[in-house]
Amino acid sequence: MKTFYLLIILLITTQLTAQEKEQAIKDVKQAAYNYIDTFYKADTTLAYKSVHKDLRKVGWWFDKKKGKFSNKSEMPFHKLIALAKKWNAKGNRANENSIRKINILEVSDKIAVVKVTAVWGIDYLNMVKTKDGWKSINIIWQSEPKFSLKD
């Protein structure tokens, strides 16, 4: 009888863990799309939902005129909000047909890593699960790459 109860508990625990995993993947995916749409839709409410206020975002853009990458650009949360308000405010940088791709690289019970591909290039989002949901806390980005490991 004891074995039967242990088996029932194990099955319930496994079921709950699988459900938690699927929900975490769904929530991470939504947070990544919110990040892209923060800029595409110039909607800062999405950033407040999916970006941590302790954000550390660093990146490099390729200057075609100079033929080289820029110096490191750092963007804390308040600068991300300011950029999101104006980056596509006129709708001339991204639209419904613009690339909006995510690749979830890892999801665990507390952290996740997602690769985002958008019109500006690629971002790697390091996320943390908070009481308010999944939020990007560290982001590294670059303008559109010449090559990738996936090529």
Automatic annotation (TrEMBL):
Residues 1-18 form the signal peptide. SUPFAM superfamilies: NTF2-like. It holds the Pfam family Lumazine_bd_2. Keywords: Signal. This is Nuclear transport factor 2 family protein. It comes from the Bacteria. Gene3D superfamilies: 3.10.450.50.
